[in-house]
Amino acid sequence: MKLNSIRQATIRAALGLCVVALATAPAARAEDKMTAQSLIDRQQILDQITRYYYNFGKVDRQNEESFYAEDGELILGARHYKGKEGIKQAYNRAPAAPPAGAAPAVAAAPPRERTAFNVAIENPLIIVHGDTATSQVIFTEYRQEKVGDPMKFTTQGKEYATWIKVNGQWLYKTRQIASGSNPPEGWKE
Predict the structure, then answer these.
(1) Residue 153 CB-half CA count within 13 A
(2) How many CB atoms lie under 10 A from the CB of residue 182?
(3) Are 125 and 135 in contact (CB under 8 A)?
(4) Residues of 103-131 as b/e, b for ≥16 C-beta within 10 angstroms?
């Protein structure tokens, strides 16, 4: 019996030290503080990212610029698309106007056969700072060469984004696509 009492006392002492250590240790970062609202915000941002990527490959898709703030920016390598009109042009949603005095454009080629196009997102890291936030996700694209073929891995990269809450909705402030593992220059969580 005496040995059992000593074990229990030792376990209680160890647990007490752990509680004291945890209680007195400073948080690694302020973002580590979880609140019900920060969890809700994180989920809303993840839902927006998911909806954005599900949108690709759809016949009737939501306008990509609707996911961005009015002054949002899409950065693809060295190309920067600013504002809703710029983002619309990045996705070829706005027809390019021919230069003044140019002949009308030749009729467009018939549309290609629609093949499956899926984008998977993984390892989301979302940090909320009140009404702004940052996110990082890994995306992987899969495509078919022709209808009926199996899906093939085509591209993988990272998305680095900043977010702003506008009228209760999370919208991209900046969205930058990068290859490799290094964040864009000047990136801050």
Answers:
(1) 5
(2) 9
(3) yes
(4) eeeeeeeeeeeeeeeebebeeeebbbeee
Question: What DSSP element (H or E) covers 37?
Answer: helix 36-55
What type of residue is 147? V
Helical residues (DSSP H) of 58-168, grouped into ranges: 83-90
Q: How far apart are CA 135 and CA 42, in angstroms?
A: 9
Q: How far apart are CA 143 and CA 126, in angstroms?
A: 27
Tokens matching residue 28 = 């690694």
CB atoms near residue 151 (< 10 Å): 14
Q: The pTM is what?
A: 0.72
Q: What is the pLDDT of residues 39-66, one digit of tens each?
A: 999 999 999 999 999 988 777 889 999 9
Specify the long-range contacts of residues 52-56, CB closer than 8 Å, at least 24 apart.
52/172, 53/119, 53/120, 53/121, 53/139, 54/119, 56/117, 56/119
Residue 101 φ then ψ, to 5°: 85, -5
Task: Locate the DSSP E strands across 42-182.
Answer: 68-76, 79-82, 117-129, 132-143, 152-166, 169-178
Joined tokens for residue 124: 């989301």
